[in-house]
Every structure is written in C-alpha cells, then in structure tokens.
Fold this sequence. Notes:
Layout (H helix, E strand, L loop, with lengths): L13 E7 L5 E7 L5 E3 L5 H17 L6 H18 L9 E4 L5 H8 L4 E4 L3 H10 L4 E2 L12 E7 L8 H11 E12 L18 E2 L2 H10 L2 E7 L6 E8 L11 H10 L3 H5 L4 H36 L13
Parallel strand pairs: 4-5, 4-7, 5-6, 7-8
Antiparallel strand pairs: 1-2, 2-3, 3-9, 8-11, 10-11
Helix pairs in contact: 2-3, 2-9
Amino acid sequence: MGQKQCDLCAGTEFEPIGERDRHGKPLTTVICKACGLVAHGQIPTDEELAHYYATEYRKSYHGELTPSDRRVMRAWKNGERIFHQLQPHIDADAAVFEVGAGIGCTVKVFELNGHQSAGIEPGEGFQDYSQQRLLTNVVRGDLFEQPRDHSRELVLLVHVIEHFNSPRRALEYIRGMMADNGLFYVECPNIAAPFARRSKMFHYAHIHNFTPSSLKMLAESCGFQLEMQFGSKEDPYLQMLFSCSDSRKLKIDYNNYQQTMQVIRQATPLRYHLRPRYLSARFSKVASYLREHLTAKQFVADVVKKCQQFASDHEDEQPTELRVVA
C-alpha cells in the first residue's frame, strides 16, 4: 500500500485526532496538516464499501433495514425543506437527480412539484421501499455507472459526500454528468459546528468530515463555484449550493487546519453540554420525538396515498427522460 494522500490537496502529513468511533470501536481518524480535511486513517476500498452500504449500513447506522414510519416522516419533511430552499434558484421544469436517495422522499417531493426527478440508492431495503411504497424513480445503482452526458440540471448530494472513499473522484464524475448551467446541492455534517462531543464525532460510515472551508475548497477544485450557503455557523449540517464552473483551481485555505483543530480540542463533554442552545435543542428534540410517535403512522399513510394518486393521474404520460443506470 502506497503512502496515504489527502483526497483534497494530496498532502501526506497527518495528525491523529481520534482512535475510536462513536460506538467505542477502533477507528483511526486523522487531519491533513496542509488543508485541514478530516478523514479515516485507512480509507476503505470500493469493494468493502459496496458490500457495507448494500447490506450493513442501514442496520448499523440507523438500526433498521426497512424505514420506520418515523424515519419516513422525517425524510419527507426534510425533502420538503430542501425543495422550498432550492425552488427560488431553479427552473420550474428543471430535471433533478439525487445520488444516494435513501427512502426517495426528496426525489418524490420534487416530482410532485412538477420536476422530472430520479435517483440512485445502494441500500436494498430503503430502495425497495422507495419504489414500492412511494412509487419513485429511484433504482439501485452506482454513481460511476451513470452517463456523463452533461444533461443533469440539478444534482443533489444529501448526507452522502461524507460516505465516499474519494469525494474528489465523486465530484469530478458528477461534474461530467451536469449541464454547464447546472446546479449542485450538497448537505453534510459540519465538523466546525459544536454538534457533538469529541467521543461521538466519528463513525465508520463517515469517511471524510467537512468544514465550510474544506467543502468549498474541494468543490471549487472539481469544477464548481459556491452560489449560496444556507443556515448559520451553529447549524450541525452544511447546506451549500454550487454552480458549474470552467475553473478547477485548488485554492488552499491554510487557516482551516488550525481552526478545525481548535474546534476539535474544544469538543469536550462539558463545553458541549454548556452550550447556550443545548437545553432548548434537547427539549425540542424530545418534544419532536413525542409528536412523531403520535402522528407518524397517519402522516406516512397520507403520503403514500398522495403518491399513489399522483401515479394514477399521470399513468398515461411518457416516462421520465432522465437516464438512470441500475
């Protein structure tokens, strides 16, 4: 095995920042001392990841192979949030493609609002649910098998970029799929926000961990430029919208390493629990869990009915022109 290189800047100097994952299992995590990208010390192979995501990921990460009503309700509301967030920035008939579509809720929300919408999802149980219950155009497919025909007008990568063993390879491939005037939306955990104490930060499935700066650096070096960052610095998730660019220049933010290290050093249990927003956030989360238990079943039944009615109303229309390779 050759010397490890940073996927963002190709640097070879790393500092260890973690030895275990959030479950206490051995997992070495390092930070690049040049650009500040945080990643596993040993990157899984394509074969290891393909097996893990097809059969093990949903069980180990979510605790279920088939989505529960609560999970479907959350995903549907999240899909609605993303749609309303992006609606002002896209054409009314823009073709939408989601990589790692999960349950398919976001794909379906865009479809119900007039968009040609499709996606791919490697997880068997979630993808089956997506097609059979929500009647989505989400297939079990691989990103690197999709046609690079410069046809995609909006590509979504929602909590997926952190799972790639090479985000650079993924973003460069996605750029080849997109129209020159296309938009690219990325959402992922924000390691620069105090969203977790240090012992809970790292997970086998999250191979790379991003700050706003490292995600921007990577995207810009792969042919994108930042159009808008949604949310605030305190948000636990990055929400960034990029447009396609002819430039692929890597501009390293040399402050990112020190700034990221400062955040990680401060991620102690005491600091985490003393955050001004901690108690209010915990209260809101407990209250939302209670509401979910009481309302999820009926909510999902209504969603499924809506999807079935939509399919019935549009059964005579031509199938989507989006080319999805299973």
